[in-house]
Design brief:
The protein is of the alpha/beta class. About 45% of the residues lie in helices and about 20% in strands. The radius of gyration is 20 Å and the shape is globular. Bound molecules: flavin mononucleotide.
Length: about 325
């Protein structure tokens, strides 16, 4: 593997300048303010909010508004919305226009969840490219923010749409498209197809961001090198490993010490308590802590203990005891 540094560069999304082209992907239930804050310590160029429903936004759902909250120092910032009804999209964007802290609005055209797809939302949009065009046109017409799109390879192997969607984006003033190299039918199984990302990059001039299965320096390098993409986006590979951004940006696989791992987990839990309150934090922290400790000696048992802990104080005690044990073996 050659040095990745030749691929790391600043990038512009329309008029928004971003310091580097290594991004944290949107993940529902994961990329809340707390996790984005943790990842930002390791310098990704951009972090995305969890996806939010344009229908719920239009009707003023507090819960949905919270999903799109931006931290004070989270700039440039990107929020993600989903929807297939152009009136919902328009009215949501008109609201988001009023929020000075938002720089980029990404439209989700890839979520495989049946509850979205059956309404034509997320990857459901890939069954109706005319509607993709009308949603994009409407978004561009009213938005004061940069509009970007995140999509998949296609709906299924019979309907490979990534390039067509990219062309619709390009023709209508969308400045960046992210492509996850799986179809909707694949969900998260199999391997992300780098060829489709390469093909999209060869055929449009807008930014193409490669996504899927980047879990370390080598997979990041391969994504850049094979597809010639303009930037990369990491989702699952950042869970329990926000250091992945440091590794890629510095071109050297970084392994945190036990102490660093413990301190970042501790800080992450404290952010969750601050943002969500202790009760919700005690639920939300479970999937994150499972990832932070995965592969460490005895972690399965500790994960089970944490999943049964009654409150965050218990979690802190379990973790302190566990890391004491790890330090002494
Ligand atoms: C738990 C979870 C939640 C996700 N939520 C979103 C989302 O809200 N919006 C979106 O565009 N993609 C979402 N994705 C897809 C990821 O952004 C990404 O495209 C996919 O996981 C492939 O990248 P990876 O291999 O780096 O994980 C989600 C993925 C996971 C695992």
């Amino acid at each position: 593997m050659e040095n990745i540094s030749k691929y790391i560069k600043s990038i512009s999304v329309g008029k928004i300048n971003i310091k580097n082209n290594v991004f944290l992907a949107p993940m529902a239930g994961i990329t809340d303010i707390s996790f984005r804050k943790i990842c930002r310590k390791f310098n990704p160029g951009l972090t995305y909010t969890e996806m939010a429903s344009s229908k719920a936004m239009e009707f003023g759902s507090q819960k949905t508004n919270k999903l799109l909250e931006i931290m004070e120092d989270e700039r440039p910032s990107a929020v993600q919305i989903f929807g297939s009804n152009k009136d919902n999209i328009r009215n949501t964007i008109l609201k988001l226009n009023e929020n000075e802290a938002i720089d980029i609005i990404d439209i989700n055209m890839g979520c495989p969840a049946p509850k979205l797809v059956k309404n034509g939302d997320g990857a459901g949009l890939l069954l109706d490219l005319k509607n993709v065009e009308s949603v994009i046109k409407e978004a561009k017409k009213v938005s004061k923010k940069e509009i970007t799109v995140k999509t998949r390879k296609g709906f299924n192997e019979e309907r490979i749409t990534a390039l067509e969607v990219a062309k619709i984006c390009e023709e209508n003033g969308v400045t960046q498209i992210t492509v996850h190299g799986r179809t909707r039918a694949e969900y998260y199984s199999g391997k992300s197809d780098l060829d489709i990302i390469k093909k999209v990059k060869e055929n449009v001039k807008i930014n193409v961001i490669g996504n899927g299965d980047i879990v370390d320096l080598e997979t990041a390098y391969n994504m850049f090198n094979y597809t010639n993409c303009d930037g990369i986006m990491i989702a699952r590979g950042a869970m329990g490993n926000p250091w992945i951004f440091k590794s890629i940006l510095e071109g050297k696989e970084y392994r945190p010490t036990l102490e660093e791992r413990f301190n970042v987990m501790y800080e992450h839990i404290n952010y969750m308590i601050e943002n969500d309150g202790k009760t919700l934090a005690n639920l939300k922290l479970r999937k994150h802590i499972a990832c932070y400790i995965k592969g460490l000696k005895g972690s399965t048992k500790v994960r089970d203990l944490i999943n049964r802990a009654n409150n965050t104080e218990e979690v802190f005690n379990i973790l302190k005891e566990y890391f004491n044990y790890l330090n002494n073996i």
